Amino acid sequence: MSGGEARLVDVLDRHRIIVCAGSGGVGKTTTAASLALWGALHGRRSIVLTIDPARRLADSLGVGPIGNTPCGVAPEALGSLRSDGSGTLTAMMLDQKGSWDELVTRHAPSREVRDKILDNAFYRQLSQSFAGSQEYMAVEQLGELDACGEYDLIVVDTPPTQHALDFLEAPDRLLAFLDRKIVRWFVRPGVTAGWSTLQTMNKTVSFLLRKIEDATGVVALGQVTDFFGSMAELFDGFEARVERVTALLRDPQTAFVLVAGPDEQILGQVDYLASQMSERHMPLKGVVMNRMHALLPAVEADVRSAEAVADAIEPRLREVLGGSDDEGRPAEVASQLASNLVAWQARARGDALRTELFRGGLPEGVPLVQVPDLPSDIHDLGGLASLHRFLFGTVD
Ligand SMILES: Nc1ncnc2c1ncn2[C@@H]1O[C@H](COP(=O)(O)OP(=O)(O)O)[C@@H](O)[C@H]1O
Ligand SMILES: [Mg+2]
């Protein structure tokens, strides 16, 4: 990367699709919405595909709890945020349960096949429990948004997973599962003969069955063969589709941005994560380190130990509190506040240290931005916009 420090703002400028990856609970949804808002404020037709927004955030983005149709955020709402007026913000909620059904509906060659699949107990189980189904549906939905051509910035929030890589693996895992050979095998005549016959046939077969059983918990073979029988009819279109969305994830227009917290385990595994991502041709383009505990330099100045910090700060706090009418116990409150502050500083130092170690392990040219743990939740457009100076500004 030429021209000095890598910046997150350039990552957004140079890509049309931003996928916010990372394990759950770190602020992925908030970050995704904030990135999309930034695009909208800078003239782009921007959409955020969000997965599990907190209720108040969903309300202020205008996405209801039902359905997964895109909702435009009112232009007046953007206008109050120093927008140049040419961009738009749309939000959309991924409704996982509906999406599988939609997918089947879209690809089924006939109403009969569609109903047969939708009514199949194995299908219902699969669509709810298949590992990676939620991740896959996010990718699938991304493909739709890309194809419609209405957006020039698409920000994808990803489902809360344990590992940042789960999302990237979902399409491949689904393809492997719906492997053509397996599907063909199941629709061979005679397969419906029964479970026990099958298991004695050969090792591969019983291995496959066990695999399916493990993945789904469904053991009634009749349902399984029925399902694959119906699936075979819509599989051709489906496979092509999975390949198309996988290609979209690998497209140079797509950037993966990792959202992480400074206390996460993942921080120790950045080398692994980055190499796994580039192996999948989905290279990491940026990192948002969210909810950093801010260091207070004034406190840090020349006191070393926790006691010294407390000692230094306590008299000052007592002075301030002395003027208040806190039931005449300013000293006690001051000492509690002082020890709180000391604990906070310790966390802040830990956060800073881990973040620097993490930064050292990042591939060259991948920007890392830090967002502080703000005093209150982020639940409206103003709150999302308040993150911009940390995400895109000069604040490090
Ligand atoms: N930097 C921050 N400062 C304060 N609160 C934050 C920050 N980032 C996220 N939050 C809050 O944390 C909660 C979880 O955030 P969310 O984006 O839903 O996480 P995730 O999608 O990773 O589970 C939300 O209530 C959100 O408002
Ligand atoms: Mg979320």
Main beta-sheet annotation: 8 strands, mixed
Mean pLDDT: 78
Q: How are the strands of the biggest sheet laid out side by side?
A: 3-4-2-5-1-6-7-8
String of helices and strands: HEHEHEHEHHHHEHHHHHEHEHHHEHH
Spell out which ligands are present: adenosine-5'-diphosphate, magnesium ion
Properties at a glance:
396 residues, alpha/beta, 8-stranded mixed β-sheet, elongated, binds adenosine-5'-diphosphate, binds magnesium ion
Descriptive report:
This protein has 396 residues and is of the alpha/beta class. It has 19 helices and eight strands. The chain has helices at 8-14, 28-41, 55-61, 75-79, 96-107, 111-119, 121-129, 133-148, 166-177, 180-186, 195-201, 203-216, 221-249, 270-279, 297-300, 306-322, 330-361, 381-386, 388-391, and strands spanning 17-21, 45-50, 71-72, 88-93, 153-157, 254-260, 284-292, 368-372. Strands 3-4-2-5-1-6-7-8 form an eight-stranded mixed beta sheet, with helices on both faces. Helix 14 (270-279) links the parallel strand 6 (254-260) and strand 7 (284-292). It is elongated. Bound molecules: adenosine-5'-diphosphate (ADP) and magnesium ion. Magnesium ion binds next to helix 2.
